[in-house]
Amino acid sequence: MDPGDAATVTLKLRNTTDLVEEYRIGVAGGPGMWARVEPRTLRLYPGTTGTAEITFRPPRTPDAVAGGHPFAVEVTPTEQPAGKTVVEGHLTVTPFTEVRAELLPHTVRGRFRAKPKFAVDNLGNTRLTASLTGKDNSGRLGFELRPAHVQIEPGRAAWVQGRITPGAITWFGHRESHPYTLNVLRSGVEPVEVGGVFVQGAVMPRWLLGFLGLLVATAVAFTIAWFTFTPKFGSRARDGAMVPVGNPLSLPGDKAPPPDQKPRQESSAPPEGGGAEPPPASDGDGEERPLGGPGNNLFYLSKSSPWPVPPEPGEEPAVWSFPVKSPGFEKVGDDWGCTWSPVRYTLCGMNDTYNGETETTFDFWVRSNGDPDASVSVIFDWNFDGGKEKLQRREVFKPFKLEPNQEWQKYTEEVGLEFTDGEEFQDLKGGKLSVGFWVRSGDSPIEVRSNVPVDQEMIAALRIPFDPIP
């Protein structure tokens, strides 16, 4: 029989004794766990016959191993247990094959090579023999798999170590994405394909190429000036035009000027281009966008939470990767504890006064992993009363489309608020704020930049409609 189906056999039982007897029926052996007996007991008068049906339902899992499985049906009399009777049978399970493959991680990065891992699970009920190959559409990647051939028992898995090398090294420029596919090949069966992305980074950043060019140009210009410039020196002492400067020195015998006569001073011309320096040019009428948007209370996105104090200069910025199916977003009203989550930035114990004249604004820097369909939404979750462990309000902003060039992009509240859910804003009394990112479309995770010191660029910050309590 096929796993997942049902098969029924009939047991016929006759009471050959002179007593009214009750018989208990059970199935022993491997197939006993898949068997169901109806009825499990038969009460027969002397000389009468009864029947029971035994239904086998082996599951479509690796537990139902393909091949023969002997079993026994035990019939035990209640009045005379010593008269126990056993009949034997044989159940043959047909084989089926089911293979699942997974690439970990989906996206790997490297300048010269990358080492992904490849997991192959045998979910069938017979031994799996397969070979593994890798390919990419452009033919620019080299693949090495160890081992390249596997034999996996039912219900077990095999790990394969991969090694990807690019065809050429990128010395300068942007990162390049190379989609590739790993195949699980079996005889007479369509291969199982698993796709991944190899992101090849440049050995040197592009700005270094411009810096080196500027340095070479400066050195050439200095060399030319050194060999072509001839300095000209002259002295006005030869033509008697030298004029003494400083305070005059009185010598013995010199006549001092009368008290009512002031010493004469030589007039001097104003310096060339004289006059005071002009004041600096005033700024234009345009207004620049403040950090975190035009909101009220500024917070910086640190490594784990919104924080009112910026990171110290010299700290390293952090990059968080948010999976395609971001877990941990509860519904309004669900229990919501103040615990760390790899997909949330959460701050607890907030005591602030609601300011209805402002709104939630933000400056976040996000990027994709080369997926042309990637988009992301930011979610603000609020709990106003620290005594309640409930999610009371949610703000979800519209999706922000990400470019596949894997460059950082600025995501602000200007995309618009998609919807809100829950209670209206109120004062924070030991409350909580959680910022989460939701991958709205695409098949690869997105990255968010955080913990950026103020002396650097692309600072992740937000403002909330609250005034801090002094």
Structure description:
The chain is built from 1 helix and 30 strands. It is flat and about 135 Å long. A hairpin with a 2-residue loop joins strand 15 (176-186) and strand 16. The protein has one helix spanning 206-228; strands at 7-14, 21-29, 35-38, 41-44, 49-56, 67-77, 85-93, 99-104, 107-110, 117-122, 128-135, 141-146, 149-152, 157-166, 176-186, 189-200, 297-301, 306-307, 318-322, 344-354, 361-367, 375-383, 393-397, 400-401, 409-412, 417-422, 428-441, 446-450, 461-464, 466-468. It is mostly beta strands. It folds into 3 domains: 7-93, Sandwich (Immunoglobulin-like); 99-200, Immunoglobulin-like (Sandwich); 297-468, Galactose-binding domain-like (Jelly Rolls). 23% of the residues are buried. Strands 17, 18, 19, 21, 25, 28 and 29 form a 7-stranded antiparallel β-sheet that branches. Strands 20, 22, 23, 24, 26, 27 and 30 form a 7-stranded antiparallel β-sheet that branches. Strands 9-16-15-11-13 form a 5-stranded mixed β-sheet, with no helix packed on it. The chain is 5% helix and 43% strand.
Oligomer class: single chain
Helix/strand/pairing category: mainly beta
Domains, number: 3
CATH architecture of the largest domain: Sandwich
Distance between the termini: 77 Å
The geometry reads as flat
The CATH C-level class name of the largest domain: Mainly Beta
Mean pLDDT: 82
Low-confidence spans = 235-285
Organism: Actinomadura spongiicola
Transmembrane segments: 207-229
Region (Disordered): 244-295
Keywords: Membrane, Transmembrane, Transmembrane helix
